[in-house]
């Protein structure tokens, strides 16, 4: 990638970064040597990090703005940015990763560095093979991180605490006090029509897991030797199976040699599909603040809707309370991760206790993935849809 030649000041900053990495590497080496003296064959990275924590902390007060920028850059690469989130706009990288990774109590002003602009600094880092950038019509994007670069490998993140660490700790504490993660447990009940296939003594009111429900049909077929010897994918339909699964579907059966005759065999797939029609899904929510109660059907999903209102793209999110997600916490996540403005409001209705998040831009799919990863909500309980235009 083409870029401006580094100035003398920028070259000096590169040397400062090398000195910083070298100092960190020497600290780790000393910890490793101490491990060798006590008879350890090798010091793990965790032990090296702990040794640095127990030893001298990095002196950030004496650092120049160039040194702080280099430090925050390496910290962001190693501690904040995941490869799965790339490519990423440089503006997003700077606001959501690089600046929050500065040491606690420090102020990082890129304009006071020798680079003056974050773009020039990242171009210099790309020239040094730390990262790969792409310039598309003047817009820079971070495409890849070289995690095999010596500076990246030698950098130890535990030598200091960043502003990002404090922010995450505060958010975790808030989430733990305001909301509790909810786990969805699904189970099934059988309709009364399926009773002849159930094990002896089984109760129609009992709950069956997905696998237990499927095993009922499998065990019945095996116990009555109904697998067709000539074709293992076919099932012999005895009178009980016919009366139970095919009684209300005679019009769907194919005619045999004589008009009105019924099937004597059917595929395992078709038999299973007919069996599944007699399963009633139920669910219970575990881990929340409310009393756990079995309810028929599945839980109401989190609904994410992307709209265009008066020429502006917005994303609305409702239904978070079912899964114990605090709307204000998720709104803060979206603001930080997607660099967008957010607003939390009460849902209309006298008896409504839910809240709605409105986020700037169309960020539905990214919100889905964040809710899945951060709050352990199965993707099947999150719905993303696009709505038509509203307003002029």
Number of strands: 13
Q: How many distinct domains?
A: 3
Helix-strand pattern: HHHEHHEEHHEHEHEHEEEEHEEHE
Proportion of beta-strand residues: 15-25%
Rg estimate, integer Å: 30 Å
Q: Quick one: biggest sheet?
A: 5 strands, mixed
Distance separating the two termini: 43 Å
Strand neighbour order, sheet with most strands: 11-12-10-9-13
| Total of helices | 12
Helix content: 25-40%
Name the poorly predicted regions: 1-6, 8-14, 24-57, 172-179, 255-261
Large-scale geometry? elongated
Mean pLDDT: 78
- The structure class reads alpha+beta
Provide structural commentary:
This protein has 392 residues and is an alpha+beta fold. The chain folds into three domains: 8-175, no CATH class; 185-281, MDM2 (Orthogonal Bundle), CATH 1.10.245.10; 300-390, SUI1-like domain (Translation Initiation Factor Eif1), CATH 3.30.780. It has helices at 8-37, 45-54, 65-79, 90-98, 118-127, 150-154, 163-178, 210-223, 239-245, 268-276, 327-338, 364-375; strands at 88-89, 131-136, 139-145, 183-190, 234-236, 265-267, 279-286, 295-296, 302-309, 312-318, 342-346, 355-360, 382-390. A hairpin with a 2-residue loop joins β2 (131-136) and β3. α1 (8-37) packs across α2 and α1 packs across α3. The longest helix is centred in the first third of the chain and has 30 residues, at 8-37. The radius of gyration is 30 Å and the shape is elongated. It starts with 7 loop residues before the first helix and ends with a strand. The relative contact order is 0.09.
């Amino acid at each position: 990638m083409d870029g401006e030649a580094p100035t003398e000041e920028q070259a000096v900053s590169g040397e400062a970064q090398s000195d910083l990495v070298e100092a960190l590497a020497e600290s780790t080496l000393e910890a490793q040597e101490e491990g060798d003296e006590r008879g350890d064959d090798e010091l793990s990275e965790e032990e090296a990090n702990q040794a640095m924590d127990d030893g001298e902390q990095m002196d950030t007060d004496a650092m120049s703005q160039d040194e702080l920028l280099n430090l925050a850059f390496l910290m962001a690469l190693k501690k904040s940015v995941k490869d799965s989130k790339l490519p990423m706009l440089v503006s997003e990288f700077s606001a959501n990763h690089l600046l929050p990774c500065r040491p606690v109590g420090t102020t990082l002003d890129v304009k006071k560095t020798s680079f003056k602009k974050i773009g020039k600094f990242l171009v210099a880092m790309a020239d040094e093979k730390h990262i790969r950038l792409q310039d598309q019509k003047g817009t820079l994007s971070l495409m890849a991180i070289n995690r095999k670069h010596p500076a990246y490998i030698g950098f130890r993140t535990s030598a200091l605490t960043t502003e990002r660490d404090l922010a995450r700790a505060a958010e975790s504490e808030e989430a733990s006090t305001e909301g509790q993660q909810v786990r969805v447990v699904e189970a099934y009940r059988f309709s009364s029509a399926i009773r002849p296939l159930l094990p002896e003594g089984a109760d129609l009111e009992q709950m069956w897991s997905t696998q237990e429900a499927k095993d009922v049909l499998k065990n019945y077929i095996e116990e009555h030797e109904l697998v067709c010897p000539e074709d293992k994918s076919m099932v012999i339909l005895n009178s009980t199976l016919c009366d139970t699964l095919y009684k209300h579907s005679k019009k769907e059966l194919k005619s045999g040699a004589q008009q009105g005759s019924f099937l004597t065999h059917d595929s395992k797939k078709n038999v299973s599909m007919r069996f599944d029609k007699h399963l009633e899904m139920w669910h219970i929510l575990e881990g929340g603040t409310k009393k756990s109660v079995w309810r028929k059907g599945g839980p109401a999903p989190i609904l994410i809707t992307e709209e265009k209102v008066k020429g502006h793209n917005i994303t609305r999110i409702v239904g978070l309370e079912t899964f114990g997600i605090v709307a204000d916490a998720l709104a803060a996540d979206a603001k930080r991760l997607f660099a967008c403005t957010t607003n939390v409001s009460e849902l209309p209705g006298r008896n409504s206790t839910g809240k709605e998040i409105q986020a700037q831009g169309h960020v539905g799919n990214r919100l889905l993935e964040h809710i899945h990863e951060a709050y352990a909500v199965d993707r099947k309980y999150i719905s993303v849809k696009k709505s038509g235009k509203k307003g002029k």
